[in-house]
Design brief:
With about 90 residues, the chain is mostly helical. Helix content is about 75%, strand content about 0%. It has a domain of about 55 residues.
Length: about 90
């Protein structure tokens, strides 16, 4: 019995949407959520700075990967991370 792999015929289309491996996205998004939580911490300056810088680096990295590969998911995630960094900056300064 030969298994039917026609379900994976759309894989090149998925490759045009994302540039990184799915594990990489899960790892980056998990760290971005933790970094956002740290960046929003008003009481701890070191944690806030590390979280803010992590969001900036992650956002810029994803944005560059998305622009270089033309992948919309990476561009959107990069913009979201940079927006989260901007919001945390605004929130902790007000």
């Amino acid at each position: 019995m030969i298994p039917d792999y026609t379900i994976f015929s759309e894989a090149p289309l998925l490759g045009a949407i994302v540039a990184l491996k799915p594990k990489s996205y899960v790892f980056r998004l998990g760290l971005a959520v933790l970094a956002f939580g740290a960046a929003m911490n008003v009481d701890k300056v070191i944690a806030r700075v590390i979280g803010f810088v992590w969001l900036l680096v992650t956002g810029a990295g994803l944005l560059l990967v998305g622009i270089q590969n033309g992948t919309i998911v990476d561009i959107l995630l990069g913009i979201a991370a940079l927006s989260a960094a901007g919001y945390s900056w605004w929130y902790t300064r007000s």
